[in-house]
Write a structure and sequence with these properties.
- About 45% of the residues lie in helices and about 20% in strands.
- The two termini are about 25 Å apart.
- With about 170 residues, it is of the alpha+beta class.
- The protein contains seven helices and five strands.
Length: about 170
């Protein structure tokens, strides 16, 4: 599974169980590939100050986008190892993805060779969550939680659905 068509098919199967899948299908934007954070002075400075960690995509992206006005926060899906995973990332003003979480994992893998790294061009499909909403949620609830479902529920005045356990 590596194409837009494959990812859309996967999300259609899960949209009734996972509200984010339906939101992304209706409003999502595609991003193919990613830039390195080292290509942006703001991202370099932020990375030195915050030291983003692997497996903290929501926390990393929310804080980066709160601190760096030339970026926007997205939540949705990343195709990695042939499987879509829920993920969060930043998109810079030039519409390129900067993914501090994947970069942190790559840095960790340089030290620990047992960590497998995806080498194919990443495929991202997600929705933007506005900075003002992120800031409000950080103040009220802290950072690091997925926000897209809550953001689009507030925006459309629909209730937030709780995820069901398998």
């Amino acid at each position: 599974m590596r194409t837009k068509k494959d990812l859309r098919h996967y999300l259609r199967q899960w949209k009734d169980r996972f509200p984010l899948a339906g939101i992304v299908l209706r409003k999502g934007q595609w991003f193919i590939g990613r830039a390195q954070s080292g290509e942006y002075e703001e991202a370099i400075q932020w990375r030195r100050k915050r030291n983003p960690q692997p497996q903290e995509c929501y926390f990393n992206s929310q804080h980066f986008c709160s601190d760096c006005r030339v970026s926007r926060h997205f939540e949705g899906y990343l195709f990695i190892k042939g499987t879509p995973i829920e993920h969060a990332w930043a998109v810079m003003d030039d519409s390129k993805v900067v993914d501090h979480t994947i970069e942190a994992l790559e840095r960790k893998a340089e030290i620990d060779k047992s960590i497998p790294i995806e080498t194919m061009t990443p495929l991202y499909y997600g929705v933007e969550v506005r900075r003002s909403f992120i800031m409000q949620q950080i103040v009220e609830n802290g950072a690091g939680r997925p926000l897209a479902e809550r953001y689009y529920a507030v925006k459309t005045k629909r209730p937030v659905h709780r995820r069901q356990a398998f």
